[in-house]
TrEMBL record:
PROSITE patterns: UPF0033. It comes from Desulforamulus putei DSM 12395. Residues 5-29 form the UPF0033 domain. Pfam families: TusA. InterPro entries: DsrEFH-like, Se_metab_YedF, TusA-like, TusA-like_sf. The lineage of its organism: Bacteria, Bacillati, Bacillota, Clostridia, Eubacteriales. This is tRNA 2-thiouridine synthesizing protein A.
Amino acid sequence: MIREINNRGLACPQPVINTKKALEEMEQGTVVSVVDNRVALENVTRFAENAGCKVSVEEKNGEFYITITKGEGTGPAVAVPGKCETGPVVYLITSNTFGNGAEDLGETLMVSFFNSLLEKPAPRVIMLVNSGVRLAVQQSRVLEQITKLARRGTEVLSCGTCLDYYKLKDQLAVGRVTNMLEILENLTAGGTVITL
C-alpha cells in the first residue's frame, strides 16, 4: 500500500504530524510525504528515521518526495501516544509567545507548540500566568487548540491577578480563573512540571 501525503505550503510541525498520522494508520506499507521546503524535509526525514522506517528522498522541481517504508525489516513500529509514564504533566506557561526575540515569531511558535501538543497525551493542567493568560481569551491564536485540550480533560487555569492586570477577565474563553496558592499546589503536587 502506498499513500501520498501533500504537505506543500505547510509550516512545521504540520508535515511531521500529517506523516506521523499516516504511518500510525498502517501496520506496514509506504507513505510518500511531499514537502516544498528544506526545514520540513529535514524534520520529516528525521522523524521517520527515528521511528525505524526506511527513508529515501527525491527532489523534483523544488519539491521533495520523501518515501517512507514501514513494516517488515524496517525496525520498530511508530509509537502511538499513550499515557505519560513519568506522572501527570503540568505546563506553566508564562508568556503568550514561545521563546525570546521577535514577538510575531514567538506567536507563530506558540501556535506550532499547541498544534504539536495535541498530538501527545493531554496534560493534566495548563496554568497560564503573566501574558500567558492571553492564550485563553477570545481572539487568541491558540484558543481552538486549548479548547480541544480542555475537552480531552486538561484543566486550564488562568491567573486572576494577571487577567485583571491586562484587563482581560471578561474575555476569558476557556478554563477558569485561579490564584497563586492553587498554582503553587499544582507545581508541588508531583509529576512533571514544564515551564515555557
